[in-house]
Amino acid sequence: MKVNILTGNMELANSLIRHLRYVMGIEEDRIHRLIFGKEHILSKEILDADFWIAEAWNPLEPENPEGFRTLMKLSGRAKCLILFLFMPSGFPPDGSFWCKIPCNGFKQKIKKAMESAPPDQKDYQALVEMWPELAYDPTKHAHH
């Protein structure tokens, strides 16, 4: 199994790698780390990962749901788990392909997401309807 981790900081990425390695039994050489704001060449090999874990919002740009947007582009093709560090009132803290962290039963949450079908466009759109800011794309809102 190939896993991509997309986060805003190295500490969270390393923590997730340790969890995947020591708790889930995934070899470290099967895990690829991507950090927001760093230049990454998204090769076919990286895009063809079996599973993605992504922090929804870029912590360096708090209004930029970069991780959410990235996974939404892979809808229907990529199994994933989206991590939220905060949520608005009334937003479900846990779903089939997302959770608020820290999360009780994180191992089971990852396992269930790995075994589920990839979320499709309707699944992502349902989240956007509950939290419209998830649709924000800074490249489409640039001021000139």
Structure write-up:
With 144 residues, the chain is an alpha/beta fold. It has a single domain, classed as 3-Layer(aba) Sandwich (Rossmann fold). The chain is 32% helix and 18% strand. It is built from five helices and six strands. It has helices spanning 10-23, 44-47, 66-73, 106-115, 121-130; strands at 3-7, 31-35, 51-55, 79-84, 94-95, 98-100. It has a six-stranded mixed β-sheet, sandwiched between helices. Helix 3 links the parallel strand 3 (51-55) and strand 4 (79-84). The longest helix has 14 residues, at 10-23. 31% of the residues are buried. The model has no long low-confidence stretch (mean pLDDT 90).
Blueprint (SSEs and pairs):
Elements: E1 3-7, H1 10-23, E2 31-35, H2 44-47, E3 51-55, H3 66-73, E4 79-84, E5 94-95, E6 98-100, H4 106-115, H5 121-130
Parallel strand pairs: 1-2, 1-3, 3-4, 4-6
Antiparallel strand pairs: 5-6
Number of helices: 5
Radius of gyration based on Cα positions: 14 Å
Which structural category do the helix and sheet elements fall into? alpha/beta
Counting structural domains, the number is: 1
Task: Count the E strands.
Answer: 6
User: What is the H/E string?
Assistant: EHEHEHEEEHH
Summarize model confidence as the mean pLDDT.
90
Low-confidence stretches: none
CATH architecture: 3-Layer(aba) Sandwich
Overall 3D shape: globular
As for the CATH topology, it is Rossmann fold
Q: Largest sheet, described in full? A: 6 strands, mixed
Q: Helix amount, in percent?
A: 25-40%
CATH class annotation: Alpha Beta
With strands numbered from the N-terminus, the spatial order across the biggest sheet is 2-1-3-4-6-5
**N- to C-terminal distance:** 44 Å
Beta-strand share of residues: 15-25%
Q: What's the CATH H-level superfamily name?
A: Response regulator
